[in-house]
Amino acid sequence: MSTRPLIELGVDGVLALPNDAFYRLSPHDVATFQLELLRQRFADLRGRIAALGKLADLQGVNEIAAVDDAAPLLFQHTAYKSYPFSLLEKRKFQAMTRWLQSLTAHDLSHIDASNCHSIDDWFELLDNETPLSVLHSTGTTGKLSIIPRDKREMERFVRASLKVFEGYGDEPDLVGDLLRGEAKIPILYPSYRYGRHIGQRMLDIYIRLFGEPGTCRAMYEEMLSADVSSLAGRVRAAEERGELDILDIPPDLLRKYRESVDRQSSVAVQQKAFFDFMLENCRGQRVMSVAVVPYLWAWTQVAEAQGLERMFAANSIFTSGGGLKGMDAPADWRERIERFLGAPLNIGYGMTESMSGMRMCSEGHYHPSPLLVSILLDVDTGTPLPRTGTQTGRFAFFDLMPESYWGGFVTGDRVTLVHDQPCACGRTGAYALDSIRRFSELEGGDDKISCAGAADAQERAIEYLIERANAEEASA
CA 98, CA 91: separation in Å to the nearest integer? Predict the structure, then answer.
């Protein structure tokens, strides 16, 4: 396929390509398409997203002529949690809205958040009165990252996440009938049913588009509270600093937190009830489930103890990510999980900030979507590594799928990309080896990210956002 049709197709047109074409696009055509779309994104968003405009000014970037030109414009994770924490503590959600405005192209000037008393209230207001479908992180460091993805982009993301199941080569197409609206299936989710974390946002759309009424089940039919997630992170951080006794927690939030802790204390009971539900209501059926590997492994061990195999139909859809998360499991854990499920397990690599991920092929390699511009940065200098040969560095990317927020991001992961050696699975383009590790795990402690370009530009851009938010608080 030539480059010109790719540009004319745009994001949704490329996503609509059958996988045999999608994963066999010419690397040259993909590179040209990616660069052109990257140029368009920068030209469109620089003047509409304050954080991007400030960073571009600080880095002296006026246009993008090559992919490496975008490296100084990649956001670090701190951009999405650059608000002063005092705004949440004092419940200044009008100022929080103005802070969020600096990260999205959508106009939030009409939003009155002065009556919001919690993060959950604020997210509900944004859900109801804006195009946004805001996502929050787990807040393990003590502060939530807040990603201003919109509703249209969330639906695009969900459809893109299922593309890996459309089949490639001899692989069966497991989702074509679902995407065409011809079938409904049970959807099983071993976590909270409601919330604004990525899992709950995806679950909402899965159930609306593909869920068979009366058969969809979450382990907790309750809300994952952003307030509780935020407080849980603060408690952990305070414990590490030995400052738990001086943590100021409002009574209503403390009540929410205690309820969450009580719920988690019965997790073994909840897991058993969820497993029993699957056994009684879904055995032999085609189902869809997104679950982290530790849950799948726990199910597998229970099933093996009961002599259960091939729990679900072979055309079921199971996807997972996030790795073993410290789980102690034997080398054949994946084969045993798939034997229990009776269906293949798709394992992917991605993060909350990205809509375009990587799927693992039969050779154990991660293949980026043509809509994900993969960039490796030198660990010490932050400069881009050559896009040839086999390179290992800090993984960064530009995601071409979002159109209302900036898709450039630097991760905390060490990744090895192979550029010039074709994968035996037949997919074209560069791929990542299955050796991805977080730098914080490799080096211990906090991960210090070196910035591409001007050494302090990222920090100064974040300071700018904080100053704006503080000024808004002072004037409120």
Answer: 14
| Tens-place pLDDT, residues 184-219 | 999 999 989 999 999 999 999 999 999 999 889 999
Residue 258, token pair as written in the block: 């205690």
Cβ contact 415:395 at 8 Å: yes
Domain ranges for the chain, please list them. 1-92+355-476, 282-349
Residues with Cβ within 8 Å of residue 24, at least 6 apart in sequence = 426, 427, 428
The token pair that represents 322 in the structure block: 């996030």
Q: What is the pLDDT of residues 344-400, one digit of tens each?
A: 998 888 888 899 989 899 899 999 999 999 999 999 999 999 999 999 999 999 999
The Cβ of residue 314 has, within 10 Å, a number of other Cβ atoms equal to 12
**Element at 99 (helix H, strand E):** helix 93-101
Q: Six-digit token pair at 288?
A: 């869809």
Q: How far apart are CA 431 and CA 425, in angstroms?
A: 11
Residue 411: name the closest of 444, 439, 370 by CA: 439
Task: Indicate the Cα dihedral angle 310, 315, 321, 325, nearest 10°.
Answer: 0
**pTM of the predicted protein model:** 0.87
Neighbours of 385 (CB within 10 A): 18
List, for residues 243-295, the tens digit of each pLDDT value: 666 666 677 777 776 776 666 667 778 888 899 999 999 999 999 998 888 88
State the number of CA atoms in the 13 A half-sphere of 144 facing the CB: 27
CB 301, CB 332: distance < 8 Å: no
Give the C-alpha separation, 269 to 260, whole Å: 15
For strands 390-399 and 345-349, give the pairing: unpaired
